[in-house]
Amino acid sequence: MTDELPGDLYDYESLLSEDERKELLGIRRFLHEEVRPRVNQSWETATFPMDLIPRFAEEGMVGRSYDLEHRPRASRLFTGFISLEASRVDPSMATFLGVHNGLSMGSIVLLGSDEQRARWVPDMVSLQRIGAFALTEPHGGSDVAQGLETTCRRDGDEWVIDGAKRWIGNGTFADVVVVFARDVADDQVKTLVVEKGTPGFTATKMEGKYALRTVQNADIVFEDCRVPAENKLAEGNSFRDVNRVLKLTRGGVAWNAVGCQMGAFEAAIAYAKDRRQFGRQIAGFQLIQDLLARMAGNVTASLGMAVRVSQLQEEGVFRDEQAALAKAFVTGRARETVALARELFGGNGILLENDVVRYFADAEALYSYEGTREINSLIVGRALTGVSAFV
After folding, report:
1. 366 with 260: CB under 8 angstroms?
2. Do 35 and 119 lie in a common domain?
3. Could you report the per-residue pLDDT of 210-232, keeping only the tens digit for each?
4. Are 134 and 177 in contact (CB under 8 A)?
5. Going by C-beta distance under 8 Å and a sequence separation of 6 or more, which residues neighbour residue 169?
6. How confident is the model over 257-298, as pLDDT tens digits?
7. In terms of domains, do 253 and 372 share one?
8. Same domain for 218 and 253?
9. 181 shares a domain with 86
10. Are 249 and 370 in contact (CB under 8 A)?
């Protein structure tokens, strides 16, 4: 591992402060020295290396987007680079952190009361409690805003949840699950927190998944699942509130997609220098250099967009269509970049030991989750034309 970021051809990392660059280098070394050696085995066996979880907190990779009593919020650019570095090594690890950091903890920070934040966030920052985010359902993906089937109802001092969720990252071992359910009283989406061990809550690991295999996605069933009234997040009262969280985290997915394609790009460069055919390095073949140049263009354009997303978030002027465009564009470029990298490897590209097939598969998941390309395109199109094309 080098201290530099080889895929950053325009040196966007130089936009960080000196202190941020020093801290990022420490995170980079941790990921490459302690996490990278574990990722292929974890991916192949579809198991999560639970013993690494405390190390993410120790390295300062958790809760950096939020103001905390003991630590001020880091810049959006710095937290973006953390996401990039995690995904550059393993998109599964970046997804674990994104679900916990952004979707789950972000929901509590954005939608919770002071008391609720004090109750859950400190333990989530230290990773003593793991978070999950339960929005997607077996029959509802892109249409979940209108077709949410999971229901909740107020019963005295409790909320009762019934229904099912699917594709819930971290769901098999999460301690805190943020759940979205339609209130039978007013037909509005409420946000509730279900804690591990609550009766009526069952999480089952999804099997046969061939992308982000290390991520423990769960099918979750709620059967007369009762949570205290104080577990309903104070500001989680409609799907508009859910969108506040998704707007924030779509920018994070863009950073993850940059890291995914950067990891594949760097693996391709290393392989091109090492692999010999016809008596010389394939790095000296024109067609190989063309593939690398195309990948470099995708990586650079994607990183530039992700950087601008973080700058707009920092300025407090980040809009829905900007989040949607970044998610759709960067994950699309990631798909192309990992395919070009796999092409460069030839038959060796399908061997897990060469890493690129892992990025190739994982890019497909990044392309689809937190809003498909089509849905994000409609968000952008609505902003461009002033006309909604949603059904």
Report:
1. yes
2. yes
3. 999 999 999 999 999 999 999 99
4. yes
5. 95, 96, 99, 132, 133, 215, 216, 217
6. 999 999 999 999 999 999 999 999 999 999 999 999 999 999
7. yes
8. no
9. no
10. yes
To 10 degrees, the CA torsion angle through 301, 307, 311, 314?
150
d(CA 220, CA 33): 35
- The number of beta carbons lying within 10 Å of the beta carbon of residue 157 is 9
**Domain containing residue 205: CATH number:** 2.40.110.10
Interatomic CA distance for residues 333 and 339, integer angstroms: 10
Comparing CA positions, the residue from 91, 94, 124 lying closest to residue 106 is: 124
Residues 325 and 266 in one domain: yes
Handedness of CA 134, 49, 23, 359 (dihedral sign): negative
Residue type, 289: Q
Q: Which residue, 144, 9, 123, 142, is CA-closest to 62?
A: 123
Q: Is 241 helix (H, G, I), strand (E, B) or coil?
A: helix
Beta bridge partners of 297: none
Q: What's the burial of 236, exposed, middle or buried (CB within 10 Å: 0-12/13-18/19+)?
A: buried
Q: Tell me: the pLDDT tens digits for 148-174?
A: 999 999 999 999 999 999 999 999 999
Domain of residue 359 covers 240-385
> Which residues in the chain belong to E strands, given as ranges?
131-134, 151-155, 158-169, 176-183, 189-195, 201-205, 217-228, 276-277, 280-281
Give the residue among 328, 337, 275 at the shortest CA–CA distance from 300: 337
Question: Facing residues of 134 across strands?
Answer: 179
Do 99 and 135 have their domain in common? no
- Tell me the three state secondary structure of residue 226: strand
pTM as predicted = 0.94
**pLDDT score of 356:** 97
CATH of the domain at 295: 1.20.140.10
Tell me: do 137 and 226 sit in the same domain.
yes
pLDDT tens-digit series, residues 314-358 = 999 999 999 999 999 999 999 999 999 999 999 999 999 999 999
